[in-house]
Write a structure and sequence with these properties.
The structure holds two protein chains of two kinds. Chain A is α/β, with parallel strands linked by helices. Chain A contains six helices and 16 strands. In chain B, strands 1-4-5-6-7-10-11-12 form an eight-stranded parallel β-barrel, surrounded by seven helices. Classes of the chains: A alpha/beta, B alpha/beta.
Amino acid sequence: MISIVDYKAGNLTSVLRAVQHLGYQAEITSDPNILASSERIIFPGVGHAGKAMEDLNALGLGDALKDAFKRGTPILGICLGTQIIFERSEEADVECLGLLPGEVKRFPSPLIQTKAQEKEELKIPHMGWNDVAWLVSHPVLDGLSADASFYFVHSFYPEPKSAKDIAGLTLYGISFASVVAHDNLVAVQFHPEKSGSPGLALIDNFCRWRP
Amino acid sequence: MLSKRIIPCLDVRDGKTTKGIKFKDNVDIGDPVQMARFYYEQGADEIVFYDITASSDHRSIMLDVVRRTAENIFIPFSVGGGIRTVDDMRAVLLAGAEKVSVNSAAVKKPSIISDGAKIFGSQCIVLGMDVKKVEKSSKIPSGYEIVINGGRTYMGIDALWWASEAENLGAGEICLNSIDADGTKEGYELELTRIICEAVHIPVIASGGAGHPQHLVDVVTKAKADAALIASMTHYGDYTVKQIKDYLTSKGVCIRNLW
């Protein structure tokens, strides 16, 4: 059974529907005991890092996620879930789970894109479809083309301390780590459940992954 | 690089899609869930449902449409029309919509934007604006006025001021509809779109007037819109989403071309 972690951070039904659409069994849970025996874990989330950490810890899910990571349970982080696996977030300057070394930063303001010598100020949040430059080959990223686009909605981005953990980069004024991979953990800043077939392919790969 | 979004809009009444020409003479053209799936497969970047059901008794029909759509398409979609309270927002978001759009309810009671943004996050809250061109005046310095009731009621509010105010209140996106251009197929209201896009820091979806792919090129380049709403140009089979996207790509616009 796949567990989708519910810590009051946004609507998780879209993740559940995508997983079920692909033919896998999954449940939304906020029970640390269930995470302890999960076959694999999807850690999504939309919202504020400070509030998310507060709710995660109050529910006892922070430790459950750390244990699952150490145990080798496959984990897929999505959006806010991806951010709070790092040590710290600039959003509310809050201490996060620290599964991977690194920080979460806000896009600099103003965020300037230079294209054909023309400067344009980019909007924050980064919202819409953008592509990913894949840096590594990885079973969860198998078959994903450099031409594929994914749906992003975020104002903060992960900055892993170790370059080895960066599996994909996205350009939005600056180049940031949009895909992170380390041992049994893959985490994406975009929403694969809202990214059409390439996003579904990534979720499908994750659901079959045996790290 | 971030792509410009092409967004088909489906007007829904009593659970069926319609397309109004200048908000009159609506005719039924099909099942909204099937149409959403059709556009999803064609490469639409997002879908907008606009519920024009008059009776609140029929709201549950729309929620059923939202639920079934969420099971069948895996791109963001939003629901607008008849959203008057935070509870209305919650119902469509829980049914599976990514975003909810408020229009006349926000004009009458702007706090619905800030309340919704606080509870669900700004990224969920779209401000829908219906706008008509008027004489510039001290009250309407931009010459663009907010209207409601399908353009029948002038609100005495400047569109440019309202867009910035909505951003300050926490709206995450603006869907900007020109009543003058809507249904004409002669192109978007470029001047209106440009001044709003330059005034706010949140994404703007241009709406009203698309009839040819060049109109979309113009609105995302000259008027700087982040996304373009389309309706009749694809609903009646004049173009496919793919044809529109190929045209935009040929003109150098960054578009999502693989789905």
